[in-house]
Structures are given as structure tokens and as C-alpha cells.
Amino acid sequence: MSPVDLAGYAAGALRGHRLRTGLSVLGVGIGVASVILLTSLGEGARRYVTGEFATLGSNLLIIIPGKTETQGMAPLVSTAPHDLTREDAAALLQRVPQIRRVAPIAVGTAAATAGSRSREVTVIGATHEILDIRHLKMASGRFLPPDLPDASVCVLGARVQRELFPDQNPLGRWIRIGDWRFRVIGVIEPRGTSIGMDLDEVVEIPVGTALRVFNRSGLFRVLAEVGSHSDLGTVKQSVIDVLRERHAGQEDVTLLTQDSVLETFNQILGVLTAALAGIAAISLGVAGLGIMNVMLVTVSERGREIGLLKALGATHRQVLVVFLVEAAILSTAGGCLGLLGGLGSGRVLEHLYPDFPVQAPHWAIVAALIVSCSVGLLFGILPARRAARLNPVQALMRRKA
Amino acid sequence: MIELSGIERIYEVGASPVRALKGVNLTIHRGDYVSIMGPSGSGKSTLLHILGCLDRPTAGSYRLDGRETADLPEVELSRVRGHQIGFVFQFFHLVPRLTASRNIELPMVFAGVPVDERRERAGRALEVVGLTARADHRPDQLSGGEQQRVAIARAIVMDPSVLLADEPTGNLDSRSGGEIVQLIEGMNARGLTLIVVTHDPVIGGRARRWVRLADGNVVEDKVPDESPARPVGPLKAS
Questions:
Q1: N- or C-end of chain B: fewer Cβ atoms within 10 A?
Q2: How far is A371 from A331, CA to CA, in rounded Å?
Q3: A188 and A122, same structural domain?
Q4: How far apart are CA A349 and CA A341, in angstroms?
Q5: β-pair type (A193-194, A197-198)
Q6: Which domain range does residue B165 map to?
């Protein structure tokens, strides 16, 4: 029996029960669509997070004051970490040759006021270097000047600008942050959230000024940009050496690289995606049971036909294959339907939430199709064997069509 | 050539076994025209199923064209059914969703005959039964007599050596029944062994050899003295 004959015969039989066929196809379709949609969401989350990190650049070393490490005994002498200072940052740039740029950062929150308008903002104390390190772009004006760490100037995030100076040009105007006055010299291009900090809602001021405004002696952190990604390992050690020397022999900083953070997020979100795929696979399994049910009904209904096929010379194997192919057609058609449905609703989501990348991973698409086809074969085996084993004499004796 | 010797068939129904055939001996020569008659429960259907290799005897030997079938594997039995035996059933047994010509092609599909040859042979078989014009009609668009003629075309399309007809006129009016009987008798005239199972004496009486079964035994096996007249035309309703 040629494949064409098989497919033709099975398809003809399925056409005879349009509603039943349609419902089984729909069942598999829903299963496959949910696999694709859920893995798309998981994959989207992964891409979103890793994309956020990638905007920071992969050759960035983040230096955080304090050592996050459990130690054995309560120390007799206080080990309160030394502040991480601007001088530390300068020393790093000077003494570690692979470091291209450093950006000392101080952070605080304060009320920003312009005329009668006021709102709470995150104030970032930074230097000119942050512009390149964070790949920021100016919408208007200029960024913090390179050589004036204590100037009373500020750069506004897009939303801060919108809310403090609606429909006005803020350049050259003054705003008040706490008790201090700053002249607006630039506005950053809108960009949205980056690692939990909405850069549209910040005001950036020179780092020295920031330390005075918030009355702090230490930095929030220092970003160091390394010439090449492959140098990160050696640079880490050099940084620790330099800072230990400057901090009276204590190793009291924590170094983070993009890689370690990214790796962790990648793993977590990868597992999440797999878990979502697993949940969706349950519905595919249920759809498989649906196919089995329909095929069992079909086999018992078409007993006479099966008896006839045997009388006409069909072998055990041929009858088995005829019914397996029917089940496979059901589930594969469902797989294609679900693929279209899943990708289609992915598109709709993409349209509704343009910021969130919804994209079905290629492995999920391939797997959904393969799995749907095998679901048909797997759950088709029992009914097909029942058909093949039917006693032709008893099958032919059935009077019902 | 069919040779049955000591054929027994015992069904396990509930606690007590039912002996449907109790040692049947029968030899049917190629080109013969045999009717198997008997009341219901006499074992004639069981005998038909064994002759058609749809069922295996519990004991005894069945040689078809010189080959023992009783111990053939299932696959070989399917081949025998497909190539050497043609079935005509009381209820026609056409696949309702297939056209007349596709129904006739079915045995060739399972035998792996290429499409072109299938079309051609189905066309010729339709011509033999005089239904060329109905080739693309589905069974529900055909009369009972026409359906049975399609079934006959399907039975002969593999060019078998034996045609087994199980109450071939049982579901037809006497006029179409007569036409069907004439059709299969015409095939017998061209050398096909014809075995008709019936409880209708009018149909059975037309055969050249009468085998009568009762209670699982052959109780009569005779060649009637006078060559039976073959009236052309309607038969008495069964």
C-alpha cells in the first residue's frame, strides 16, 4: 500500500466525520498552541532580561562597597568596610592598565522642584564617563561636563523633563533638589527601564555634588569598563589588589560582572521556559487521549469495513497502518493548526506589548510539530491494534453500517 | 481445486464448546458450480468462512490449489484472500464513502497494484458487470442490484480462482437477484469456480452440484440427474 493510497484512504475516512475530526484537531491544536505561546513568553522573558543587561555592555566590571561573604567568627575589631571613594576610582584607572574608563556613582532620592511643580526623583551622581559606559543619548543640550565634578548643573531624564517642564524648553532653567539649586544643561533621550532603574525618571548631577547633597563620604558603586571582555579575569584580581592596598589590607569590595549575573538569569529563565513547556505539554497529552478516544469509537463503528478490508486481502499490518495514519493525520493537522494559532497569538501579544519580545524559540516550534505527530502515533497504537486484531468473521457479521 | 478433509470447527461459547462443523470432507474441482445449502445453524456460514480463509478450522486439512492453508501464517492467508478468493456478500459491503470504481480498486490497493493499472482493471471489471456509466457514483447513489454488481466486479478484479457468494440475492428483489445470479453464472461459464451459500432452494437448485449441510455434517452431496434448466428471467422471491 503506497503512502499516497494510505493518506488518501485515511483522509477520506476522516472527511466522513467532519465535526469529530474537527474537534480532535482542535484539541491537539490548543495543546500545541499553548506550548508555543507559553514557551514564547518564557523565552521572551529571558530575552528581555538578557537584553537589558546587554545594554550595559559585556566588558563592564561593577565594584560594590562591602563584602558579601559569610565569615566564621564575630570579629573582635570592627570590620566595617571602608568607603569606596572617588580617589579609589581614580587610582583604579591609573594603576590598572586594562581599565579604559571608570564611572563613580552615587545615588539618592530627593524632591526636585521647578517653579510650582515638584516630584520625587532618583538622583544619580555621576561623571561624564557614564554617558558612554551606559550608552546614553542626549535628546537636547549636553551631558555633565568632564572636568567639573562639583558643578551645580543637572541633566534630566525624559519623564522628569516632561513633568517638571511640560511643553517648555528646560535648558538653562533652574531646579531645586533638596536645598540645592541646579541649572539644567541637558535632557536624556527616553529609554525606559534598565535593570530596575527607570532612567527616564532620574536627575543626573556631578558625583562630587551628589556626595555633598546627600552628605555621604562613600560611593554607591564604581563601574569600570575594560578594554576587552577577555581581560575581565585578570582585571578583577588587579582591582582587588589595588583596593586592598588602599583599604588598609582589607578586601572589602564585591565585584560583579555581567557574565555572572547574566548567566544566572539565563539559567533561571531557561528553567522557567522549560517548566512552562511542561505545563503546556499536559494539554497536549490530554489532546492525545482525545484522539485515542475518537479512534476507538471509529474502530468500533467501522468494524464491518475492517472485516471487509481483511476479506479483500489487507494484512494485519496494513489495517494497523491505515488506522495509525488516520490518528497521525488528526494530530499533525492539529499541530499545524496550533502552530499557526500559537504564532498568531504571539503576534497579537507583540502588538499589545511592543516592549516585550515575544518570540517562539525554534526548538519549541520543531518540538511541537514532532511531538504532535508522535502523540497521534502513540495514542493511535491502541485503537489501531484493536482494529488490526478484529476477527474478520465477527466484524463482517455486524449488520450496522 | 479445493480439498477439505476432516474439517472441524469448534467455538468456545461460554462454558460449553459448540461444534459448528463435525468433520467435513469435500472436494471441489476448478470451474465447478456448487451450492451449499442448509437451514440456519447448519454450519454453512462457518464452512464458507473457512473456505474463504477468513477463519481457520480447529482440526482437519484444507488444501487450496494444492497448498495446505490450515497452518499458513496470517500474512499468507491475507495474500490468499486477496489473490485467490473473491467474496460476494449478502449486504454488498461496499465502503460508503468511496465511488464504485474506488471500491473495485480496494483489493488492488492492498495488493500494491500501481495506480494506472488499477484504474484500467477497475474500468474493465465495471464493463464486465455493465456499470461503466456508474463508475463515479457512491453506493448510496446506486440501487441494490447495482451495488451487488459493483461488489462482484470487486470480487473478480484480482482474477481469483474461486468466487464465494454468501446469499448473494438475499437482499435483492427477485428481478435484480436473477440478474446477479446470471452474472456470476456467466463468470463460472468462463472457468471461475463458483460456490454459492444459500438457504434458498431456487438459487441453490441452479448449481451443478448440491451440497446440503445439517448440524455440522454434509448430509447430501449430489449432482442432479437432469441438467437443470436455466430459465432466463425473474426468479421466485426468496
A1: N
A2: 9
A3: yes
A4: 12
A5: antiparallel
A6: 30-57+72-222
Q: Which of residues 278-337 of A touch B (CB under 8 A)?
A: 304-305, 307-318
Same domain, A309 and A335: yes
Residue corresponding to grid cell 482474477: B159
Distance CA B57, CA A392 (A): 14
Give chain A's radius of gyration (CA, Å): 33
Q: Which 3 state secondary structure label does DSSP give A264?
A: helix
Q: What is the 8-class DSSP label of residue A265?
A: H
B74–A contact, CB cutoff 8 A: yes
Provide the number of structural domains found in chain B: 1
B79 Cβ under 8 Å from any chain A Cβ: yes
Say which CATH number the domain at B175 has.
Answer: 3.40.50.300
The CA distances from residue A355 to A47, A350, A352, B75, in Å, are: 11, 8, 9, 62
Find out whether A375 and A287 touch, Cβ atoms under 8 Å. Answer: yes
Number of structural domains chain A divides into = 2
Total residue count of chain A as it appears in this document: 401
Complex-level ipTM:
0.88
Final residue of a structural domain among A189, A218, A251: A251
Q: Residue B191 carries which DSSP code? A: T
DSSP tag of A166: T
Q: Do residues B197 and B166 make contact, with C-beta atoms less than 8 angstroms apart?
A: yes
The DSSP symbol for B227 reads P
Quick one: cell of A349?
Answer: 501579544
- Bridge partner list, B21: B9
Can you tell me whether residue A138 is helix, strand or coil?
strand
Inter-chain CB proximity B107 and A401 less than 8 Å:
no
Give the C-alpha separation, B43 to A117, whole Å: 105
How far apart, in whole angstroms, are the C-alpha atoms of residue A121 and residue A118?
9
Flag whether residue B91 sits within 8 Å of chain A, measured between CB atoms.
yes
| Alpha carbon distance A61, A59 (integer Å) | 7
What pLDDT is recorded for position A196? Answer: 52
- Chain B CB within 8 Å of residue A204 CB: no
- For residues A363 and A386, membership in a common domain is answered with yes
CA of B208 vs chain A CAs: smallest distance (Å): 26
- Residue A354 DSSP one-character state: T
For B183-224, what is each residue's pLDDT tens digit? 889 888 888 999 999 888 888 888 889 999 888 888 888 888
Is A394 an interface residue toward B (CB < 8 Å)?
no
| Tens digits of residue pLDDT in A175-201 | 999 888 999 999 988 876 555 567 788
Q: What's the rounded Cα separation, in Å, for the pair A61 and A101?
A: 11
Amino acid symbol at B198: T
Number of H helices, E strands in chain A: 12, 12
